[in-house]
Amino acid sequence: MQNVKAKKSLGQHFLKDLAIAEQIVDSLQNTSLYKDVLEIGPGMGILTDFLFAKKEFKTKVVDLDEESIAFLHEKFPLRQSDIIFGDFLQIDFRKIFPGPFAIIGNFPYNISTQILFNVLDNRDLVPEVVGMFQKEVAERIAGTPGGREYGILSVFMQAYYEVDVILQLNENDFQPPPKVKSAVLHFRRKENFTLPCDEKLFRKVVKAAFNMRRKTLRNALTPIVGKINSDKIPFATLRAETLSWQKFTELTNYIQELNLNPPKS
């Protein structure tokens, strides 16, 4: 069985260390909320080995690499129906899983943030995620307000999930070695949680604030609230990266009130 060649175009770097692979799989803990698991980008199946061995999981894997799919079909001949050739970003999960499922993987670095935005859009189905990221991306997602790394995805993911960095890896833990260090993030969805503001407006406010992150919120949010209101919003003199997700919900609620009850000019 010939090894799969890692493809730069697909952002592939295959994990080598079996002990690390087992630790990553064992990080899936909220199994009372799901039985199905989807692995993204299995490559040569180092995580897949441990996932398929766990009888409490019903694991499927998805990969866009035909060479990887052929390799996995040969490696796991009795599990071919669980090995999906396809693009994770285009999958209709409800056609694959009857209910909630966890996501795990050594995520292709070139689509790792897209994977999380997809998770957000399907968070009613995804109670837990364990994924490998480029270290600086992981630090941004798990970052705290005030840090340079803190951004849109930090706010969105932390609003709906508890986020933890559980492992940090060096370049030589992969083949071929990437030019960056890596980290594994663990996401646990907040159960029985409702965002305390209008979700659509929340997303609009957060994106507008960070798209002009060098400006104060007064200036960044003028297109949403209007010039007449820009001085009245909470945190007007601050910049986006200083606000926690909770403060963004406060800001969103204030802006919604402005929209419902605009001041008389």
* CATH class type of the largest domain: Alpha Beta
- Alpha-carbon Rg, integer: 21 Å
Q: How many strand elements?
A: 9
C-alpha geometry: elongated
Mean pLDDT: 92
| Count of the domains | 2
Q: Describe the biggest sheet?
A: 7 strands, mixed
Low-confidence stretches: none
Q: Which structural category fits the helices and strands?
A: alpha/beta
CATH topology of the largest domain: Rossmann fold
N to C succession of SSEs: EHEHEHEEHEHHEEEHHHH
Q: Specify the helix fraction band.
A: 25-40%
Q: How are the strands ordered across the major sheet?
A: 4-3-2-5-6-9-7
Specify the number of helices.
10
Per CATH, the superfamily of the largest domain is Vaccinia Virus protein VP39
The name of the CATH architecture of the largest domain is 3-Layer(aba) Sandwich
How much β-strand is present in the residues?
Answer: 15-25%
C-alpha end-to-end distance: 75 Å
Can you give a write-up of this model?
With 265 residues, this protein is an alpha/beta fold. The protein has two domains: 8-189, Rossmann fold (3-Layer(aba) Sandwich), CATH 3.40.50.150; 199-259, Helicase, Ruva Protein, domain 3. The chain contains ten helices and nine strands. The chain has helices spanning 18-26, 46-53, 66-75, 112-121, 135-141, 152-160, 199-211, 217-220, 222-225, 245-260, and strands at 14-15, 36-40, 58-63, 83-85, 101-105, 128-134, 161-169, 174-175, 182-189. The strands form two sheets. Strands 4-3-2-5-6-9-7 form a seven-stranded mixed sheet. Strand 3 (58-63), helix 3 and strand 4 (83-85) form a beta-alpha-beta unit. Helix 4 crosses helix 6 (152-160). The chain starts with 13 loop residues before the first strand and ends in a 5-residue tail after the last helix. 34% of the residues are buried.
